[in-house]
Amino acid sequence: MTTAPDLTGRIALVTGASRGIGYQIAKQMAAAGAHVIAVARTVGGLEDLDDDIKAENKQSGKGEATLVPLDLMDMAGIDRLGGAIFDRWGKLDILVANAGVLGVIAPIGHVEAKVFEKVMQINVTATWRLIRSVDPLLRRSDSGRALLLSSGAGSNPRAFWGPYAASKAAVDALARSWADETKNSALRVNAVDPGATRTAMRAQAMPGEDPKTLPTPAEVAARILAICGTDRTETGQLFHVRDNRFKSFRLPD
């Protein structure tokens, strides 16, 4: 059984929080006592999240959410987000960079330029911009934690997944570099491979798959939440949700 850490008083930023894994991570973080800064493009999904958090935590009076409608194509908006967090809280304790897009499943030579560019903008450039915006805030925490959502496609790319695989390989590289830069600080940085999950993105990628054979976003989120606690000291590694353990990024010879 996965045990949620006590996040009372922690400030957590979750992107892609309007649905799927991001929604569930934000919801469960709030239940664990965190104040969640929920970022997503879809306002309706953010409002649903806020309603869920308020309903579930009404009696406990624990976690709350601050909703931030933001399209991650808006790079200046990401920059402003870091400043706004500093002005209100002066720090950030947890980052979960979850937002991402699939693009298309197609031969590399058939992918339209605008599709490839959007995948790289959302999955890579926006992630870098987010790191740039909140790195100083995480360093002000007594035990900052940063999780970048990756994929098995990053280290084991398959046919027709070129843009997505390339973007997640880049995310892995960002995580490893950032972790090495901060290894002598209180900040711990890791990538997370959620594995196959019952989400809309998975259905888009694998339309013939029976979703009931896959774990739910809530189940996956619970395992991710468990590694956000101050007791976890791993850094520069890849957490495989399916195996529920950290692994080295190093590939076998």
TrEMBL record:
One Pfam family in the UniProt entry: adh_short
This protein's record includes keyword Zinc: no
UniProt domain Ketoreductase: residue ranges: 10-195
InterPro entries: KR_dom (IPR057326), NAD(P)-bd_dom_sf (IPR036291), Sc_DH/Rdtase_CS (IPR020904), SDR_fam (IPR002347)
GO cellular component labels: membrane
Record-level Gene Ontology MF annotations: oxidoreductase activity
Assigned keywords, A-Z: Oxidoreductase
CDD domains (UniProt xref): SDR_c
Cell division found in the keyword field: no
SMART domains: PKS_KR
Family membership: Belongs to the short-chain dehydrogenases/reductases (SDR) family.
Name of protein: SDR family NAD(P)-dependent oxidoreductase
